[in-house]
What we know:
The protein has helices spanning 2-34, 41-61, 66-96, 107-111, 118-138, 148-166, 170-176, 180-194, 204-234, 245-275, 277-285. The chain is mainly α. The chain has one domain (2-278).
Amino acid sequence: xxxxxxxxxxxxxxxxFMATLLxxxxxxxxxxxxxxxxxxxxxxxxxxxxxxxNWVIPKLLRNRDPLFVNTCVSLLHSSTTSASVLxxxxxxxxxxxxxxxxxxxxxxxxxxxxxxxAFTALCFSCGYFAYDQLDMLLxxxxxxxxxxxxxxxxLLLICFTLALYRNVAINYLILTLICELHSVFLHLRKxxxxxxxxxxxxxxxxxxxxxxxxxxxxxARVVSHILITVxxxxxxxxxxxxxxxxxxxxxxxxxxxxxxxxLGIDLFKAYRKEMNPQRSRQNHHD
Length: 286
């Protein structure tokens, strides 16, 4: 009876997130087709691109494990998004042509203006999150009554698409995507271990991987998100009174900072386990 109840609850969870995803799809298509928002079409292109990668990767790597394929596509997204964000920032700084680079991060620039390619990059990432949500739902790559990964994607799709619909705070959201630099090494480690390279104590490659993992975690995820949060708080008076932008942004950044804390704890545990495999085995046997 308990097992049946648990299965029923998990099924309802999947049905809920599938329903919200379908509503999101309908909303996006309505904006593109009915409201003639052609600038949102990269969302569709992003979905097609990553879904195509999901079909191609099993043939190239000869591994059809859904979790492995999903992780490889996530690695592709992190790499693509990281490169896009860096390109956007460098390009904008070059366009400043000697003007104080700090002006790039003024409130009006971050909220009211949009850097070249930023809108397209954000649309493309939306397409990925929609693909990833669908892939996890279809292949049951989640667990629990309220899977954190599904909830994470659900909230991101809401925040990103609302910003895209209203064309506000696009640059702020691009800055939050700097964390994808760290995600590259998270997914790389996961792919490596799923490919069978687990006990790599002493490997130079693994040591370098961990150095980059920790460096990007601190700089691209923790520090960047804290700075964005501080910036939001300092510029709170500059947001429109009664608007949803500031509360939504603060809520989103609070969630990201909280997730970063849990991620840091998990990362430290994984680091100790991988750097001390013998001790880990002894503790397991004890």
